[in-house]
Design goal:
Blueprint (H helix, E strand, L loop, with lengths): L1 E10 L14 E6 L4 E6 L12 E5 L14 E6 L2 H30 L3
Parallel strand pairs: 3-5
Antiparallel strand pairs: 1-2, 1-4, 2-3, 4-5
Length: 113
C-alpha cells in the first residue's frame, strides 16, 4: 500500500545548520489525510526530492516483524499533471469523509430522547 504526501521540508545532512550522524535524507510530508509525518527518502531519489513535490510513501509492512509496522519510506517523486490529479483525488476523498462524519455527528447531537 502506498500513500501520497506533499513535501513540506527536506532534511539533508548537507544543509547548513544540520548535524547528522549519517548521510540519509528525510522528508516531512503533509499526507493526503492531513497527517504530518517525517520519513526516510530512498537513497536513489534523495538528491531529487524538493519542497512542494508530491511523493509516494511505502506503507507496506516491514518483512520479518511479528506486528505489521509500515515501512514509511518515500519511494517515488511525482510531478506534473498526474501528480496534481492524484493529490486532488485523494484530497476530495478525504473531504467527503470529513463532511460525512460531521453530518453524522450533528444528527447524533440533535437527537433528544
Amino acid at each position: 500500500m502506498y500513500h501520497p504526501g506533499k513535501v513540506i521540508a527536506v532534511l539533508s545532512p548537507e544543509e547548513k545548520g544540520t548535524v547528522s550522524s549519517d548521510s540519509s535524507v528525510q522528508a516531512t510530508l503533509k499526507m493526503w489525510d492531513e497527517n504530518v509525518l517525517t520519513m526516510m527518502v530512498e537513497p536513489k531519489i534523495a538528491s531529487n526530492v524538493k519542497v512542494g513535490d508530491i511523493v509516494l510513501a511505502d506503507y507496506r509492512p516491514e518483512k520479518g516483524m511479528t506486528v505489521p509496522v509500515p515501512r514509511n519510506m518515500v519511494v517515488k517523486i511525482l510531478r506534473g499533471k498526474s501528480a496534481e490529479k492524484m493529490w486532488q483525488t485523494y484530497r476530495e476523498v478525504h473531504e467527503k469523509r470529513r463532511s460525512h462524519e460531521k453530518r453524522e455527528k450533528e444528527v447524533q447531537q440533535s437527537y433528544i430522547g
